[in-house]
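Researcher: Here's a chain I'd like modeled. Treat it as a single chain, no partners, no ligands.
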Amino acid sequence: MFKKLVTAAFLLLMTTLLSLSHGEIAYGAESEKVPLTMKHSGGSKCTILSDGSTKSSVSFSAGQSLYLSSEQPLKGLFIKWSATKIPGEWILKVGDSEIAYGRYNFLHEYVELPEGTTECTLYFPNKLAGIVEIEAYGKGELPKDVQVWDPPCEKADLLVLSTHADDEVLFLGGVCVLYGGQQRLKTQVVYLCDFTLNDYGYRNTTREHEKLDGLWEMGIRNYPVNGNFPDAYSTTLKKAMTQYDYDAVVEFVAENIRRFKPLVLVSQDFKGEYGHGGHMLFAKAAADALEKAADPAEFQKSYANYGIWDVPKAYYHLYTENKLRLDLRSPLSNFGGQNSLTVQKAAYKKHVTQQECWFYVSDEYKDFDCAAFGLYRSLVGLDTEHDDMFENLTTYEKQLETDAEETLRVGEHMFFRFIGGSLSDHLDRIKK
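Model: Modeled as a single isolated chain. Structure tokens:
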């Protein structure tokens, strides 16, 4: 224990010293797209992989590959897979090296290439794969719209429950932008619907790409989770209850509560915003899951995997009790001075298939007021300021910092007790 404390204190000292001599990092010029020559091992044409559309794809059977070459060195590849043909693990071959990718089944995957790479091969050993778009970048900083996703959170400060692609922007976008994008809190978005499913004769896989594009625009960096439920339209909760296995939806939400252990959960409106039965059902399921996730007698599979979790605070969109209002009009430093509404509107533009709908981002119109929430449930008391969902809470990062500071404080005391003097004494001596 003593050795660990001395080590911690020494690291604190070195970190402090280094901070005295380092300035801000200077970033280089933005990387540009690099033209690629592409050859399918099966002979299929690959020109559509650079047409900017996610509506067409090139398929690869197990054992086939895609050869890429460029006249200039490549920094990395940004691959958009087909939503119905994500390959799972695949192999990147560069010279004699083979690197496994695809661990997380990301629909949009960035691949960093070894320095100086001008040719490589994507090999698909196990299953059918499909690519809708592939972009290559040379030296420099990646453009801001190139998505380099982190895996889903280990623990989430904030769990956002969105029924469909675009609900997370229209109704919950202020939450995502302010807490996920601006404050950089660990924000996990969980969707009910997977648009690759077509149980009701409707499938639009482009919306799966739009999910990611919109989230990235709002500053979300942890990859979202999809439910195994199709999109089904209804205008009443009663009808929605006939379209979905309600108990399965509750179990799905409870599993994600237990998995991500959120400090705050945010749901859509009990009344379905503009009256969508699916929104109503997901909101009701969240309320039931909040109770069941804390009960070890419920849902034994997720209990065995994650244990129980009692969410400290839960908010609902447009909930009329214990009201909270978000400030969506102040400039945000992480978005170049834009406010949340502006960022949300740009994110909604990423949902190209929905632009003919009458939906819009607003903090004024009653059913679409994305600033209006209410505290549905709290283990830490009622809000008094009514403008911050994390009132009375300490984020996971702050908890870690507090624990680390206490460890370092004790370690510093033990370290300097061992060598004599104090941290400030040694810093003064070094400065002189």
